[in-house]
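User: quick one, fold this
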Amino acid sequence: MSAALEPVRPVATVKGVRIGHVHLKVAELERALGFWRDLIGLEEQQRYADQAVFLSSDGYHHHIALNTWESAGGRPPAPGTTGLYHVALLYPDRKALAQALKRLVEADYPLEGASDHGVSEALYLRDPDGNGVELYRDRAPEDWPRTPEGKLAMVTRRLDLRALLAEAD
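Assistant:
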């Protein structure tokens, strides 16, 4: 039984809030590390035996945490169920995104999609536990597409993977 939420009045926008980290349930810790550490390139910061690992970029305590506390040996959620759609990792520039694509290609790791959204360029894939992953880079805000009224006008167009890959070196 689900209770409907009562409408609430919007509050003033809170400044400075950002996503700090994402904690993922995985079936096998070492398999997940093969993706997040070895393929994506995050650095292992801390480990709790064979149950959890905290990973990050640039020495942060953790951007992605992996655990088997409730999921050891488990299966990915069935299609049509609720849950996490994807985790998005923001790369600092187009070259860094191109280098990530190169690692995926060299590992023969499958992509589910690749899109140019006007505001960003994105690669879509799944980790070994079926979690959606977006690897992307933002364009400069002054280059974002806008309507005549000044509102964002994001799009979904095919991303030219060959052109992106050419920037990996």
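User: anything notable?
Assistant: The CA atoms of residues 42 and 56 lie 5 Å apart.
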